Amino acid sequence: MNLKIVVLAKQVPDTRNVGKDAMKEDGTVNRGALPAIFNPDDLNALEMALEMKDRMRNVEVVVITMGPTRAADIIREAIFRGADKGYLLTDRKFAGSDTLATSYALFKAVQKINPDLIVCGLQAIDGDTAQVGPQIAEKLHIPQITYVEKLNDITENHMMLTRRLERGVETVKVNFPALITVHASANPCRPMHAKRLLKFKHAHTLSELQDQNRDYTDLFKEHPYLRIEEWNAESVEADESYLGLSGSPTKVKEIESVVLTQKESKRFTDKDQDVDQLMKELLETRVIG
Amino acid sequence: MKNIFVYCEITEEHRVADVSLELLSKGRKLASELGVALEAVVIGSQLKEAFEQLCYFGVSVIHYAENDNLFPYRTMLHAKLVQTLFEKEQPEIALFGATSVGRDLAPRIASALRCGLTADCTSLQIGDHTDERKKITYKKLLYQIRPAFGGNIIATIINPETRPQMATVREGVMKLEPQQVKNNPEFKKMDAGVITSVEEAVAIIHRHIEPPKINLKAAQILIAGGYGMGSKENFNILYELADLLGGEVGGTRAAVDAGFCDHERQIGQTGVTVRPKLYIACGISGAVQHRAGMDQSAKIISINTSPQAPINAIADYVVVGDVMKVIPKMIQSYKKQIK
Prior knowledge:
The complex is a heterodimer. Chain A contains eight helices and 13 strands.
């Protein structure tokens, strides 16, 4: 038995914990102040895949990410945490993809690996749509289990999973092949492993080494495991008309800045008599009381 | 043909979920603007009460599938029914609740039909669009409006070419507006055809669903805390004020993510939308995603150390100061004045 698992992960700007310095005066997020991180739900997804690897023999965990060259960072991070290998899906032709076009590109990449199971995070924090996972499952014609919180059991043929719903939980049994999306309440990801960090510290994509003007022929010959393979639209045999803007049925008609029309607000300080005055007014106007 | 379809979610109590009734209320308005009919899609078991509910929303056709294996919701079976229906009926617009059911089902359908889907819309409108490059004007498209990542911007999304135009909407965003008079919808049974082994690949072994604990939508007074509250412990003062005033406590996305309060208390685009009599924003700077979920509150008080916090612009009362000082004073002052 050889179980092949693909984990789909995304590099995202860290929109959580948007503290004071990350917010501009006008209330917009200062993107420059936000570091690029491993999408949080995808870390829960990676952990669940690694738990499967812990529980069974001959499990291979492969990470795929779609993004620019620098997204190789999260492949390295995944390998440090325990993934076996990773692929970076990168091509300018993917630019402007909505969820449907994104799911098509990832579907073509997944198809090349032909796994038994695909594990994704429920959603990415930069869009919160939760759409890409189910759309990949549909394209593969396999079942999807969303909102997965816990892996109860796994055998050669099936898994038992608990889903976290709005008002409770649901336990389901599903046969392979399948796609699951993992909820933020699932187990947090294990830390990076010191030995793996040492071994894979120099894992890179070809483009990264070229950008650094480094000689890679010998490095990859001697240590083939250090090569993070890059795929583009052509190598995953994607039909270009389904990619990028042309493959995206949703179009942005307009982006509007919100101009806040200043209400005539009454201003108070935090002094006792000011607070008293405020409460008095609320009581008199029967807003409270 | 060319009608508006709303997927109606069935609750544990075998009733139509509020979010679906809200979408029917909005769908009815959109339908009359487009001059088309509103149709409901209901899949589940023991649907008698649900059918009765649907008679008050101006629905012209109820497409239904009633079978014990169709409740609780299972992706593959519902997806097959809805996909088959949409292929036959060619809806103009299809709306889903942004719940664990709608967010599971809608993307799968959109992928199968190769059409566009916009998540978590905060407003839906009808309007035209001219593609300058192609020199084509599209009449009466669905504007799917939502705050976009990156702050104070609102994006209008359209699907010019593909149908149905699909969108999901969170609970509370649209108003629930039943009609006084009952109408008589036509009932049409849906056909799933032959069920394959893939569609039966998932079995529900066990379910434990609790009745809702907190109802932010129903609260007349809401005390909401943001990241500026600083900690979970500091939220206690908000609960104290809420108890005193007979209100509930909510939080922003940042506060929830930081673990200051539970997810079910989240107010905003990806949480609950509320319209209370009084909204007290504590340590909330007021990102557009948050404001989308509370800006229709009747009265808004903002308590913030920064006089320039964006939320102050929509507040009726602004208290510039430290929440941890101001709220105890409010509690004290209220107790004193109520005597």
